[in-house]
Design brief:
This protein has 344 residues and is α/β, with parallel strands linked by helices. It is 36% helix and 16% strand.
């Protein structure tokens, strides 16, 4: 049966993608405040000391400035990750910088950490203090910063009191040089300084790129294990280009959506092997259905996130994926979805 979103999607797709996104945020801001729907108890997952009501989260990039976290939870997401937020406001890259690859069910973006800045986001997070629900904060560095590691430390200090967890985003392809922080020396310094700053007050996650070599995977896994990070998030958008049909295939930026799924799943398996299952993993990349999410969970993910799929499937996607996962748990004769993690 077509959903309401199926009926209005053609009109939405006639709009510029970034304008459509801003209208979506505006609509969610106007939603009456509602409690999150009751989740099937079999979907509850514990990661980094946090109890997630279901494992389906909204990835960073949708709610860049922490405007609609509670509305996302009300849509059925088990958690929402806001950001990427930088210390100082910055406009990001010139427009156009967001492209729908409709034939490929994909998206290319080159936003470049457009952000209203840490102070504006912190004010919104302060306003929701005390409300239920897991809200992570994705941290970034300003493009022109003289010390990007210091930017992450600054943001960790600012956001730790209001975040369920913090994510260090060092894997966006749209800020020149940012991915160099995945190199061993820089990564060790970044993690040590941020962890010293938060002093265990909040779990710290690390988001990595899918475009990694085996040696990179092993080095990052060792660093994360040695420092007892809360989780590794696998993965961000890719700068590679598998065969694509869209006229936008040649646009510069990070590719997400369906074409990323196989690469993201492969990288997830790599990190599962490299960590020996001793560190929680969050799967991101091309997840659009309960079957996709189940494949990622079986490959080693305790949690999954999506974003691009909502462009094509609409706001009901979180509930549909969670409902499908609950059905899969029952069909497999499991008591909890946690029993499926890494069993594929």
């Amino acid at each position: 049966m077509p959903t309401a979103y199926d009926l209005i999607r053609p009109a939405i797709f006639r709009l510029d993608p970034e304008r459509a996104h801003r209208l979506t945020i505006a609509a969610l801001r106007l939603m009456p405040r509602r409690a999150a729907p009751m989740a099937d108890p079999a979907l509850a997952v514990e990661v980094a000391g946090l109890r997630f009501p279901n494992p389906v989260g909204m990835a960073a990039g949708f709610d860049k400035d922490a405007e609609v976290a509670d509305a996302l939870l009300a849509l059925g997401f088990g958690f929402a990750e806001v950001g990427t937020i930088t210390p100082l406001p910055q406009p990001g890259n010139p427009r156009p910088r967001l492209f729908r690859l409709t034939e490929d069910r994909a998206v290319i973006n080159r936003f470049g950490f457009n952000s209203e800045g840490g102070a504006a986001a912190a004010k919104r997070l302060v306003a929701r203090a005390g409300r239920p629900g897991i809200v992570g904060v994705n941290l970034g560095a300003n493009k022109d910063s003289a010390d990007r590691i210091a930017d992450y430390v600054t943001m960790a200090r600012l956001m730790a009191p209001y975040a369920s967890y913090l994510t260090l985003n060092i894997s966006s392809p749209n800020t020149p040089g940012l991915r160099a922080l995945q190199d061993v020396g820089a990564l060790h310094e970044l993690l040590d300084r941020v962890l010293a700053e938060v002093a265990g007050a909040v779990p710290v996650f690390l988001k990595v790129a899918p475009d990694l070599q085996p040696a990179d995977v092993d080095a990052i896994a060792r660093a994360a294990l040695d420092r007892r990070l809360g989780a590794l998030m696998v993965s961000n958008t890719t700068i590679t280009r598998p065969p694509l049909r869209s006229v936008h295939a040649g646009e510069v930026g990070g590719l997400s959506g369906e074409p990323l799924r196989a690469m993201a799943l492969e990288r997830l398996r790599d990190f599962r092997a490299a960590t020996g299952g001793a560190l929680p993993l969050v799967a991101i990349g091309g997840i659009a259905t309960a079957d996709h999410a189940w494949d990622s969970i079986r490959a080693g993910a305790s949690l999954v996130q999506l974003y691009s799929a909502m462009v094509y499937e609409g706001p009901g996607i979180a509930r549909r994926v969670a409902r499908g996962l609950a059905g899969r748990v029952r069909r497999e004769g499991l008591r909890s979805i946690a029993e499926a993690v890494g069993q594929g």
